[in-house]
Each structure stands twice: as structure tokens, then as C-alpha cells.
Amino acid sequence: MARAHGLGLLLALLLPVVGTSLPGTVVRLNKAVLGYVSEIGKAPLQQALKVTVPYFLDWNGEVHQPTRIQISNVRVSQFDLKFIANFGVRMLVAANFTFKVFRVPEPLELTLPVVLLADARVAQGSIRTPVVSISACFPLFNAAPVFEGSAGVAPGLLVLVQKHIKAVLRNKLCLSISNLVQGLNVHLGTLIGLTPVGPESQIHYSMINAPTVTEDYISLDVCAILFLLGKPIVLPVEAAHFVLPAHVGAAGAMATVGLSQDLFDSALLLLQKAGALNLDITGQLKSEDNLLNTSVLGQLIPEVARQFPEPMPVTLKVRLGAWHIWMLLNT
Q1: Which long-range contacts does 312-318 make (Cβ < 8 Å, 24+ apart)?
Q2: Residue 164 clears pLDDT 80, i.e. is over it
Q3: In degrees, to the nearest 5, what angle opens at C-alpha 151 toward C-alphas 147 and 155?
Q4: In this predicted model, which residue has the larger pLDDT, 274 or 120?
Q5: Crossing angle of the two packed helices 155-188 and 32-48, in degrees rounded to 10
Q6: Helix (H) or strand (E) holding 76
Q7: Averaged pLDDT score across all residues of the chain
Q8: What 8-state DSSP symbol labels residue 190?
Q9: What domains sit in the chain, N to C, each tagged with a CATH number?
Q10: Which segments constitute the Lipid-binding serum glycoprotein C-terminal domain (predicted)?
Q11: How far is CA 240 from CA 22, 145, 290, in A?
């Protein structure tokens, strides 16, 4: 998961300028993306769950003897995600924790299975970016731990070691999950702002409203505004709100992206204003069939022949001056 910080002040200056009815884009994250996230997320999740365990105070009958405990391995065997309608994402993690208890004379090894349940709310942040937050988190210890090298160790001591470890995990595992999500929010914060698309043009992204969450997908309504020389491209006609149909896109696709007609119109208007659609046809082309010169033009317009008796090349400048309507057609 990557990491850049917000552009809140810049957005506050830009967003009121362009109004509320804007060219739209819809980004829909489907169920299939959850499997992909689960797969690539196992490694960073295992690393995040390797929390630090404080010393265990072992009473030897006279004084409390501090005993070091360290997590030597975390193996995530199950990492499931599912959408919760009108809320966000539910997470289920099953992992085996291996602890090493450094007792004298022989160290003790403990394997503890843990199931972690967490609900993450997906909302809209103050700078119009997606924000994920952990609203509920519960570590469960249903399976019995397995000790190795416990021969000769008092059963009461083993129980105390278990209680110490479980208390630490209850306090720290959910905090680690929350920190992992905060790292994701830092990455999501970089998805908005101005992005260059040319020497003098930029595109600005922001979320129009809170994400729509169903059992099948999360849908983000994104406002995409094009800028030329620092000024927003505003369509001559009022742009309609763009809606992506519920059942659209290829089956099994991780994401579906819908681009509105207004966004294409805005892009073409930017090209027109920037002069990218203008064309210069020159008469200096090296071709025997090139008739673009003053002699040929003088046969049609006598004034040209009188002013330019000798053949000279002519440049034809084509300029797109009026607004044109562009249509996207289904094929």
C-alpha cells in the first residue's frame, strides 16, 4: 500500500469555482477485487500482526522475574473480505501466532490460533476522498493453544502466560489493523488534486458524494474537471448527472469504469480551446500532384493571379471556431 498528503487548501479554492453539475466518472469496485486484495494483502497483514509483547512477570516465590516473550512467526491461513450494504467492508482473519517464551533453563514455545473480526466503514473525507475507518474489531481465542517444551513447567504458570499473551493481543491487534487502514487512507488521499495531462492542461479529481456500498460493489462518483492555463473547462450546456447502470460490465471484472458523454465533450472542448484540433495544410509538400499554390488559386480568384504572378506555395489554415456536438454511439 503506497503513501502523500492532502491538498485540502487547494481543493477549497478550486471546487467552488466550477459549480456542482460537472462531467462525471463512475468507478465501481466489484466483488472480484476483494479476492485480489485478500491475496496481495496477506504479507503486509502478517507483518502488521507481529506486535511487540511486553515482558511477563514470573513470580518465583520471592520476587517477580521478568520473562521475555517474542512473536517468532505469524501465518495468516484465511483472509476473507465482503461488502456490507450501506456500510463498508467486513474482514475475517484466521492466523496462527507462534510465541517464544525465554525461560531458564529452556525456552518455551507456544502456538496460539486467533480469529480476528473487523468492520471497516467506507465514507467520504473532508477533502472529498474515500476514507476507510475501523468501527468494530474483535480478536477471538476459541482454539486451545499448543505448548512445546512445557515438561516440568507448572500448569498454573502456563495459564498465566496464556492470559498475559491474550491480554496483549486484545489491546494491540485491532490497533495494528487500524494503523494498516490509516496507511491506505494516505494512499487514497493522493488520488485527488491536479494531475498534468499536457504542457498547459491539467485534470482535477474529487468525489462528488459518499460512496455507494451494496453487497456486490462499492461505487464512487468522481468529478473530473479539465483545466487549461489554470481555468476550468466549462461546457456551454448544463452537464447532466451521470449514472452507471447497476448491471453493466464484464462478469468477474474487478472494476468497472464509466466515462460520461460530458467528460468527452469537456476533453474535446479543451482540445479546441488549446488549438490542438486546428490544422495547417502547406503548399510546400514535395509532390508532383500538389496543386496548393498561387497559380492554381489564381485560376479561381483573378486577384490572386494579379498579386502573385509567379507560382508561390500557399498554406491553408483550418481553424475550429464554433462549439460542436460529439456523440458516443453503441456499435
Answers
A1: 312/283, 313/282, 313/283, 313/284, 314/283, 315/280, 315/281, 315/282, 315/283, 316/280, 316/281, 316/282, 316/283, 316/292, 317/278, 317/279, 317/280, 317/281, 318/278, 318/279, 318/280, 318/281
A2: yes
A3: 70
A4: 120
A5: 130
A6: strand 64-84
A7: 81
A8: G
A9: 31-190 (3.15.10.10), 279-318 (no CATH)
A10: 253-318
A11: 7, 60, 47
> DSSP class of residue 293?
B
Q: Could you give the CA distance from residue 178 to residue 81 in angstroms, rounded to a whole number?
A: 16
**In angstroms, rounded to a whole number, what is the distance separating the alpha carbons of residues 170 and 73?**
18
Cell match 533453563: residue? 105
d(CA 114, CA 165): 12
> pLDDT digit string (tens) for 180-229?
999 888 888 877 777 887 778 888 888 888 999 999 999 998 888 888 88
Residue given cell 511477563 in the structure block: 56
- Check whether the bond before 105 is cis (ω within 30° of 0): yes
pLDDT in tens, 83-110: 999 999 999 999 999 999 887 677 888 8
For residue 212, which phi and psi values (nearest 5 degrees)?
-95, 120
- Residue 271 CA to chain centroid, in angstroms? 28
**11 — pLDDT class (breaks 50, 70, 90):** very low
Residue the block writes with cell 447532466: 240
What's the distance, CA 122 to chain centroid?
Answer: 12
> Can you tell me whether residue 183 is helix, strand or coil?
helix
